[in-house]
């Protein structure tokens, strides 16, 4: 192996020596612990910048908004994993996070990716954004693609988290071009009498884009938030379990139909 | 399946209806978002209580202290997983968390479990704690068990994170009986001229016990913190990767020795 | 980094060059593919020996016995994970495997570990084994520990897989001292009119010990077997899903009780 | 919850009662254990059909071909996870599998998906296949997409596993239209003097399509195979570890560069 200096990979995340520990160029014990909150350090880890107070409040609100959503498939998978391996809670948390794919948490990233295909000037007029949004919606329709970040099975008219996140972003003067574009996309998709709501993933993705969070980090931020909810579910599972109830329920209610028709696609 | 009311399992974590979302009995959008920081909501999820300001500061500091520790096996596993599956960052985060077992993050839980075998009164005298610690250390020695939460391969005399966490806990008047007992355990193990340091997992476990965090939640809290560091590493991996360098390094430096002696324990 | 030859780690598992690929000292394409079945290669990977025909038949039977057990928590966790991340089937398989801990698959390893605390001569008499088993059972009772590998919630008198595995092992003359000891342990625990059955994990662990499989490999072998069942469940999930039904069932049947009593162990 | 018969989901995978255990409509202990090898049961689980002897041999050869490939990122991630959590081998296996995404194991599925966009008659002439392949390659080129299943970083002219799999498939008369199409695709892409090799994922995907394995199952089958290799690496890791060596190597060779330039895409 060559160990020539110039070919070595680099990292900016952290280093630990006997005397000090650094995270993203900051002294951990002197500059971060007791000074910056946990959400602020997560922000630092994904942007290499410390957040200002407004950003801190909004970023915390996004994390809080996504932390839990009740007995989702993700929470149930975590609890069922705990049933079989209570000694390894890291496995149960991971099982829960692994459901954070395209159907749920992917919305964050998909929305961010869509918005960032377009470079919008911070001082774009509403009329400009309107026409950009119309073009974007047309383009998705032509390609038969679904616009990410819109619609919700339960919150059919407005997701209360979205309303609140926008309120906080306005209070902190952090509504930027990505969020405004997302609102115009919503209007372009909605029809009179039929408002399609922006969902939590959609607004979260747009707001984090305006905060300068990398597209690749959007789903990651949502995963940290979701990890908090999963740990809550697992602590509860140690006291009032529902894993075995769920197992019994499945065994008693799912019909075993013996051999299915062959799955062989050649006979289709 | 019986669906009689009294046999149904219960949850206190969360619920979502068309109108509102609740987390642990609190209205998410009105009482938590914009009002309580993310660490506070994690605290709520694992204790069912909102933290006061001192607890919030100390709990944040514990989370910040553990978020990252550079290129640990955990961070490397996450990066290598990303090399093979960049489209599924949830898998890479999970791969990193799965290393949070007995050797590293388990220290948290092991320390908490040890301290909680003993019920210490909040107003115990130092002389009482001294004799309790001596008995506990003797007992571990007799059973040939290692005391958790002590010693560190790099920070041989004092882990700077431990010093800082104790400082913050003292500022917030949150040094309780578990932490004091841990300090007496340290003294009971150390010899003149050879101080065995408390490590970050040890002090974190003790402080969280004093904050009333359930033993089952200790490792979980550490996992949420670690998830933040892992997402930082993975965002960096998308820009300046080291996964393939690590692969090459292993392939070029590990000797392939063909067939090893049989692993059959019958021939031992 | 030092790259001196003598400090480099070694591997016997495999190597790949432009000309050939080796697995455990065998040429993959010439000696293994088309010549040795997949179970035989798994046996090679964990013992560094190719199995003889009797071992091949018994090892396959153990793997087949454990491959699936219907809608277990493990299968449900995999299906729920697929619901959220259908694009990453590796995550769903992993979520299923993560439930393979102490409660279910751990039995394999626990049984092997128990049996291997004792060195039994291959030509031990039944009378010797009887007294060894009595001592072992007494010892577990004194320490308040549960004997692993015995009892089953459904198969209360005899697990049909155990009967069949013993039959195959006898046909192949592969009942060795570990399996005989396990049978004596069973007798030592049972009472007249109340036979405690050996379960599948218990007999699997004992038989694999007799085949010379390393204790550390026992749970691993069970995981490979279980992976097959999980992939079966996931392919079915793509055609006839039950993940969303399970989600609905949980949401409609689990009572949300708002705030629980505080989980603070200090108030206990 | 409604429990009306017609709304219950169904399963064909397995059922367990006190008397018998069924897998895909077959009695586990009577019809499968000792009668069908493990690969055959995996085939049953993913196709709902038992394989004939030729299919059994070829399917085993595909599984054997993919079981291990030395110190891949996947194997390294598994070993590093074991370093931190040796008590939970299921976590280490999972960490390894989680790298089985688009870059490596996805090739299987991508190739199958490409081949199955076209319905090729089992008795298609070579001249027909030639023109189908030309059209397909043109279409990929126009859309700027890479043809899956071709090329290999190490085996630049021919992957020895591919040669051997084709040999076995011919011996068993199991080269079907998907595999023949794949060979024509290879020819359409190659230029005189520059043969682009089919890789192991590509030929595996094509052969499994010809065996009637569902597209959704292709990556799953590869994951079961890979699990065997990972368990081999982990058993070796318990005896001759390399996880800590890899950690040291990374810590000593990766340059910590303090704060990186901000990752903020707004400043790009």
Could you explain the architecture of this structure?
Four copies of one chain form a homotetramer. With 268 residues, chain A is mainly alpha-helical. Helices cover 56% and strands 4% of the residues of chain A. Chain A contains twelve helices and five strands. The first copy, chain A, has helices at residues 28-32, 38-47, 53-66, 73-84, 89-97, 106-116, 126-142, 160-171, 177-189, 200-210, 215-239, 243-253; strands at residues 10-11, 14-16, 21-23, 26-27, 255-256. The first copy, chain A, has a three-stranded antiparallel β-sheet. In chain A, helix 8 runs parallel beside helix 10 and helix 9 packs antiparallel against helix 10 (200-210). Chain A is globular and about 60 Å long. Mean pLDDT of chain A is 91; it is low at 1-6. At the A-B interface, strand 1, strand 2, helix 1, helix 2 and helix 3 of A face strand 1, strand 2, helix 1, helix 2 and helix 3 of B.
CA-based shape of chain A: globular
Q: How would you name the oligomeric state of the polypeptide chains in this document?
A: homotetramer
| CATH C-level class of the domain at 107-214 in chain A | Mainly Alpha
Number of helices of chain A: 12
Structural class of chain A: mainly alpha
CATH superfamily of the domain at 107-214 in chain A: Cytochrome P450-Terp, domain 2
Radius of gyration of chain A, in Å, reads 22 Å
How confident overall, as mean pLDDT of chain A?
A: 91
Largest interface: A-B, 94 and 94 residues
CATH topology of the domain at 107-214 in chain A, what is it called?
Cytochrome p450-Terp, domain 2
Largest β sheet strand count, sense and barrel closure of chain A: 3 strands, antiparallel
Give the total of beta strands of chain A. 5
CATH architecture of the domain at 107-214 in chain A: Orthogonal Bundle
**Sequence stretches where pLDDT stays below 50 over 5 or more residues of chain A:** 1-6
Percentage of residues in strands of chain A? under 5%
From the N-terminal CA to the C-terminal CA of chain A, the straight-line distance is 53 Å
């Amino acid at each position: 192996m060559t160990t020539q200096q110039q070919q070595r990979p680099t990292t900016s995340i952290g280093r630990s020596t006997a005397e000090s520990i650094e995270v993203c160029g900051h002294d951990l014990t002197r500059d971060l612990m007791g000074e910056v909150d946990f959400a602020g350090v997560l922000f630092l880890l994904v942007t290499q910048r410390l957040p200002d107070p407004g950003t801190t409040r909004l970023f915390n609100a996004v994390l809080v908004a996504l932390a839990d959503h009740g007995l989702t498939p993700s929470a149930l998978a975590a609890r069922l994993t705990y049933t079989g391996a209570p000694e390894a809670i890291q496995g149960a948390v991971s099982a829960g996070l692994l459901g954070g794919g395209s159907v749920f948490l992917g919305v964050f990233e998909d929305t961010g990716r869509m918005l960032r295909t377009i470079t919008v000037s911070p001082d774009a007029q509403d009329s400009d954004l309107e026409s950009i949004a119309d073009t974007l919606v047309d383009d998705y329709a032509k390609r038969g693609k679904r616009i990410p970040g819109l619609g919700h099975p339960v919150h059919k008219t407005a997701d209360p988290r979205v309303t609140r996140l926008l309120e906080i972003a306005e209070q902190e003067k952090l509504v930027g071009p990505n969020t405004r574009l997302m609102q115009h996309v919503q209007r372009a998709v909605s029809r009179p009498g039929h408002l399609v709501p922006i969902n939590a993933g959609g607004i979260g993705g747009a707001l984090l884009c305006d905060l300068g969070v990398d597209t690749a980090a959007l789903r990651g931020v949502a995963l940290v938030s979701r990890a908090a909810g999963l740990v809550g579910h697992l602590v509860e599972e140690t006291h009032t379990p529902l894993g075995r109830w769920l197992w019994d329920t499945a065994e008693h209610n799912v019909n075993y139909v013996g051999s299915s028709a062959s799955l062989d696609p050649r006979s289709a």
